[in-house]
Amino acid sequence: MTKVVDFGQAEKKAKLRDRKIDSIY
Fold first, then answer.
1. pLDDT band, very low/low/confident/very high, at 25 (cuts 50, 70, 90)
2. pLDDT at residue 14, rounded to an integer
3. Count of CB atoms within 10 A of residue 16's CB?
4. Is residue 17 over pLDDT 70?
5. Which residue stretches of 1-25 are H helix?
């Protein structure tokens, strides 16, 4: 269960990072 939650959080962080990069460019 914890692994699934960690994966979900990592995905959310990656999406946020991608959004930040998109806004910069």
1. low
2. 86
3. 10
4. yes
5. 2-24
